[in-house]
Amino acid sequence: MNPIALPAFTDNYIWMLHDGTDAVVVDPGDAAPVLAALDERQLALAAILVTHHHGDHVGGVDALRPHLKGPVYGPKREDIPAPFVPLAGGDRIDVLGKHITVLDVPGHTAGHIAYFIENNDGDAPLLFCGDTLFSAGCGRLFEGTAEQMHASLERLAALPGNTRVCCAHEYTLANLKFARAVEPGNAALARYQAECEAARAAGRPTLPALLATERAVNPFLRCAEPEVIAAARTHGAAGTAGAEVFAALRRWKNEFR
Question: From the candidates 18, 57, 112, 150, which is the catalytic residue?
Fold first, then answer.
């Protein structure tokens, strides 16, 4: 069961999984791409998964309800269009025969959650992480702290290396430009940038990303690496602790052009 990226807005992806009959979508900020995909594939909408409350992730929920035969799931500590089933870290749900574990990943928003499918019928695990982890980057801190976001990213980085990371935005090339500024000597990063540039030139998404690759190239997952620490120190890191390095990187990225 492979994830399908449905483009929305300028750079969003709404993720869809289906079994040939029923489908689940993640973070439907816009109903139109979902309805088109359901119609094209003759699928019924079995459930909606929401990672956080931002409009580009929930804006299509109410328009999809007339087509929905199951629940909307969302973070317990956020204002999601009601009715919805509230979830928090450690909860488990079953959707399309898949056992999904909920992870708390605050930082981008205060109650952000992610959905992890480990037992995937022989396929690699799947992670739907909203705006917490991006390929070669991470989300901005709108409501949470640097300490929270660093801990959330560490939690995601500890998942199996073959996990396919389904982020909600096509930010990869811009993130890679920043990552190269942080770690210009990272050969894996240079190779990955070339792969992603080729994918985008061919009109393909750079996602899902592989978590093992992210651990090798994403500066926000590499806050213990000497080159990353040194770069962060030159941009105001208060010390060498992971959260301090992360905070400096995030401030730097906010202003990076």
Answer: 57
